[in-house]
Amino acid sequence: MIEKRVTDIAVLFKICSVKKQTKKNKPILKEDALKKLGERIKELRIKNGYTNYEYFAYEHNISRAQYGRYERGEDIRFGTLIKIINAFGLTIDEFFSEGFE
């Protein structure tokens, strides 16, 4: 289990380092990255049949108010991101496979 988490974290860092290299090699702005993260979280919630973010948050033991902030692109802790990814039944690699071009 610990090895799986270490592997997932390594994959996340690999994805982030590859994704941040653009044609013009522009730096990634925190606000832009958080906005994309929020859009991806919202997209997955809706895709999984949750029309209301509060119900999803409640069902997965995440603060409803805080979850709403995540979908709006506000700052998120890594541990919380992993909890949300797990709630969608995805791996880190699968989560970051779309929406971060």
Helicity level, as a percent range?
55-70%
Shape: globular
Q: What share of the residues does DSSP label as strand, in percent?
A: under 5%
Terminal CA distance reads 30 Å
Task: Please give the domain count.
Answer: 1
Structure write-up:
The protein has 101 residues and is mainly α. The protein has one domain (2-95): 434 Repressor (Amino-terminal Domain). Helix content is 64%, strand content 0%. It is built from 6 helices and no strands. The longest helix has 18 residues, at 2-19. It is globular and about 40 Å long. It starts with a helix and ends in a 6-residue tail after the last helix. The model has no long low-confidence stretch (mean pLDDT 84).
Outline:
With 101 residues, the protein is mainly alpha-helical.
Please describe the structure with a list of short key phrases separated by commas or semicolons:
101 residues; mainly alpha; 434 Repressor (Amino-terminal Domain); 6 helices; 0% strand; globular
What's the helix and strand layout?
Elements (H helix, E strand, L loop, with lengths): L1 H18 L10 H18 L5 H7 L4 H8 L6 H10 L4 H4 L6
Helix pairs in contact: 3-4
